[in-house]
Amino acid sequence: MEKFTTHTGVGVPLRRSNVDTDQIIPAVYLKRVTKTGFDDALFAAWRGDPDFILNQEEYKHGSVLVAGPDFGTGSSREHAVWALKDYGFKVVIASRFADIFRGNSGKQGLLAAVVSQENIELLWKLLESEPGKQITVSLEDRTVTCGELTVPFEIDDYVRWRLMEGLDDIGLTLQYEDDITAFEAKRESWRPKTLPAKTEPKQVVEAARPVE
Amino acid sequence: MGTTLAEKLWNDHLVRKGTDGAPDLIYIDLHMCHEVTSPQAFEGLRIAGRDVRRKDLTIATEDHNTPTLNIDLPIADETSRVQINTLRNNAKEFGIRIHSLGDADQGVVHVVGPQLGLTMPGMTIVCGDSHTSTHGAFGSLAFGIGTSEVEHVLATQTLPLKPFKTMAINVDGELPEGSTAKDIILAIIAKIGTGGGQGYVLEYRGEAIRKLSMEARMTICNMSIEAGARAGLIAPDETTFEYVKGRPHAPEGADWDAAVEYWKTLVTDEDAVFDAEVHLNASDLEPFVTWGTNPGQGLPLSATVPNPEDFADETEREAAANALAYMGLTPGTPLREIAIDTVFLGSCTNGRIEDLRAAAEVIKGRQKAPNTRMLVVPGSARVRLQAEAEGLDKIFKDFGAEWRNAGCSMCLGMNPDQLAPQERSASTSNRNFEGRQGKGGRTHLVSPLVAAATAVRGTLSSPADLDRASVLA
């Protein structure tokens, strides 16, 4: 994972609350088996609308999304983060994030910065009055700067450290492999195992036919 | 001070306590995979040269992409076929148990786990699907994870996690006839909002919850995520033990006794303190339906479409106005007068045998409204077989409904079962997001009873409306 310290890019005001992951990337785009190539899928339903913010020339190359509260609710699809990243977003700013989305972001190097709704409103006004205006996000200082305005953001200390160091979670966990093995040794025997497979008696499943 | 059920489960799965702000390392008892969120995780393992640590705690099935008709033919949609084949190849390469289309244990992952007896109390259960919260109904800590976490669990059988906060949802009173678990959870989400549970594990408690069957409890826990909570829990009791006993993977003999002894300790201590508490009285709960585009935008069936102007909060007002525009609804319209094109009965929320039985009971001997189609999609192939053994398929077919094979189906627009633009559904699924059931589709979330009655009348209805109509006739 790339190290993240500061980022400067065009801010995109998205005046919507509850932007769920079905809006960020509709289910039809989830069928790909790769981790990249999702840029065309981002906000696919809304991008058909010429007035949609990302269809406006000034915002087209945005990399800092400033959204309403409860961003990333709904489905756990990490594709939402991949799509935002593939499009070019490095930072999403909102006053509240859904837990799974925030977790997924941290693992993929997309910064989810929590800024108070009051300050989001100020950022929206600045970005709308001067389309194409740049925002600087400093992970080091935990601040968002837009012109004269500098506001703080919140992020979990550990996630911040991992993003700044660019560390991979699995590698970190495998340092504790002995602890995992020790835990496994004392697991109770009643705990279920998927193998060997047990099922009820096998039955033949015949396909339902189209209804006339 | 005592501990809550969620905290007990956490402590019992603690591999390593995090220090200096690092998360705790939590052991995972069961990992379920499906075709959509796993391909990139297996790819990650392959690139890093890692193996699956515990193949014996991992299981896969095909559900999101699978067609519900002609399952004996190759999948017509190429990208769906590639995704399913990718899962099959990964299962083979890494030695993971898989239940593929055509297998009696194929179906929606959250229906398959409990039915095989792999879901039981006192476990940690994860899956790359947000509705993994379903399994919390057994008194297990169960939650959805992203693909990076899927890879993490495959490689290490653990997850680094920060402790959750706890919220008690007390549901007192007795649920009136015609109201169901689905109405309880829709009412809870309407009350606390789609973000109300963020950062919390919810524990559903109280008289109304204790009286629910396991399948009804699963419906409630399933939608915890729609309130923003990653997990929902119900303390196990005799109802739970009875449900697990005798299933293919249920413990036997001395293991069973040891398990039950432990499971009985899985309750929140009397003197434990929750970080938040919510109360709901079930005794005056009417059937609930949603009118908007998030699961928190719901009202009792007797209400009318709300006016956005009546919302005090500006964000909510805007959200309501956007929702009504998308849904094509006018403020003041009685919900009962909203005409429905398609009724969908199925999903991990309401696709189990009890749900099918309840709906069949309502429609038995009646005729479907001529302009409404009804899709009945059992949650798993096993549920379908059981329903057919009970003759439920015949009731649905005689009524004029389509009887399908198991899968996620119309709950999400990933397979051939989708709404057309502006088509309106009454759906027993869990999400009414814009485009969730197909681009431009309009979704009203309902219980199986409301779904069935709606299919009879053609407008949003409850079974009580049918009785009223027959009295008038």
Topology:
The complex is a heterodimer of chains A (212) and B (473).
Chain A: E1 6-14, H1 21-24, H2 44-47, E2 64-67, H3 79-87, E3 91-94, H4 99-108, E4 111-114, H5 117-129, E5 134-138, E6 143-146, E7 149-152, H6 157-165, H7 169-174, H8 177-185
Parallel strand pairs in A: 1-2, 2-3, 3-4
Antiparallel strand pairs in A: 1-5, 5-6, 6-7
Chain B: H1 5-11, E1 14-16, E2 24-27, E3 30-33, H2 39-48, E4 58-61, H3 78-94, E5 97-99, H4 109-116, E6 124-127, E7 141-144, H5 147-156, E8 158-161, E9 165-172, H6 181-192, E10 200-205, H7 207-210, H8 214-222, E11 231-233, H9 238-244, H10 253-263, E12 276-281, E13 288-290, E14 298-300, H11 314-327, E15 342-345, H12 347-350, H13 353-363, E16 373-376, H14 381-389, H15 392-399, E17 402-403, E18 424-427, E19 442-445, H16 448-457, H17 463-472
Parallel strand pairs in B: 3-4, 3-6, 4-5, 6-7, 9-10, 9-12, 10-11, 15-16, 15-18, 16-17, 18-19
Antiparallel strand pairs in B: 1-2, 2-8, 13-14
Helix pairs in contact in B: 2-5, 6-8, 13-15, 13-16, 16-17
Which features characterize this protein?
heterodimer, A: 212 residues, alpha/beta, seven-stranded mixed β-sheet, 8 helices, B: 473 residues, five-stranded parallel β-sheet, 17 helices
How would you characterize this protein structure?
The complex is a heterodimer of chains A (212) and B (473). Chain A has 212 residues and is α/β, with parallel strands linked by helices. Chain A contains eight helices and seven strands, in the order E-H-H-E-H-E-H-E-H-E-E-E-H-H-H. In chain A, strands 4-3-2-1-5-6-7 form a seven-stranded mixed beta sheet. In chain A, strand 5 and strand 6 form a beta hairpin. In chain B, helix 2 crosses helix 5, helix 6 packs parallel to helix 8 and helix 13 packs parallel to helix 16. The longest helix of chain B is centred in the first third of the chain and has 17 residues. The N and C termini of chain B lie far apart (61 Å). Classes of the chains: A alpha/beta (212), B alpha/beta (473). Chains A and B meet through helix 4, helix 6, helix 7 and helix 8 of A and helix 2, helix 3, helix 5, helix 10 and helix 11 of B.
